[in-house]
Write a structure and sequence with these properties.
It is found in: Membrane. One of its GO terms (cellular component) is membrane. Keywords: Membrane, Transmembrane, Transmembrane helix. One of its GO terms (molecular function) is transmembrane transporter activity. It comes from Peromyscus maniculatus bairdii (Prairie deer mouse). With 313 residues, the protein is mainly alpha-helical. It has 2 domains: 208 residues, MFS general substrate transporter like domains (Growth Hormone, Chain: A, Up-down Bundle); 76 residues, no CATH class. Helix content is 62%, strand content 4%. The chain has a two-stranded antiparallel sheet with strand order 1-4. It has a two-stranded antiparallel ribbon with strand order 2-3. The protein is elongated, with a radius of gyration of 28 Å. The chain starts with a helix and ends in an 8-residue tail after the last helix.
Amino acid sequence: MAFQDLLNQVGSMGRYQILQMAFLLICNVMVTPHTVLENFTAAIPGHRCWVHILDNDTVSDSDSGTLSQDDLLRISIPLDSNLRPDKCRRFVQPQWHLLHLNGTFSNVTEPDTEPCVDGWVYEQSTFLSTTVTEWDLVCGSQVLGSVAKFVFVIGILVGNFLGGHLSDRFGRRLILTCALLPMAITGTCAALAPTFFIYCLLHFLKGLWIDIIHFPVFSVIEWTSPKFKALVTILMLCATSFGNIVMTGLAFVFRNWHHLQLVITCISISHYVFFQISGLQNGHNNLEMNSFFQVYFSISGKMTKHGMHIKEE
């Protein structure tokens, strides 16, 4: 007899499936924010070069006269092709003559510029701090931001291979249990990473554990008859969307990337604790394939009552 036929006979949407689905949908809500977290923690704010006359707190008002911030910016930062302050270069010396120019003249000698050797000044209207501002991942180093995302995706790819193999070998409940805590640990350590290299390494490990966690989530579809598969699939997608909504709301409240990373990690830790103390971890509700045999033997009387027999091979 096929597995789906057995489910149809003993009940394809009973208490066991409902409890399993509820727990795994919560798991999906908890894990989803980790997959989109870097869209917020690695956001690139507006930035420009740090300049002495404009950003040095020790410069007195008499040094700059009565010039406004816009005037000081004009004499310190060149304009890019869009006539906006350049994000990656500054004038070697303040260009005072630019205060008296109302237009662009072809006979004016191009002033000397240099890279942002003293760092950058970042806008804080949207995010107070991101990984970009933490390690100055702008201009020549902007590609490193893509490297961090690439490393995270590589972790997910490796997790795909490991998750399937380990789940088949050791069972899904054990893998889910063992993956939740390392994901929370790597997330916490990533928020406290002292260097960008360590951050990328932890980011890789987090991506690995996240995808391993996703494997048991799909078991909720396997334990559901075709009659309810569409409903369960829709609920899983709704849980993912709700996780994205939660992530957006938290990003609005916590605008420092360290705090946001720790909050998301704390949610994962609470989920791990809930999983450990809940009744879903015992033999009657575990997610391993071995639980199928427990269910089978417990309902064998019902199957005999319906005149059904399992062919032994």
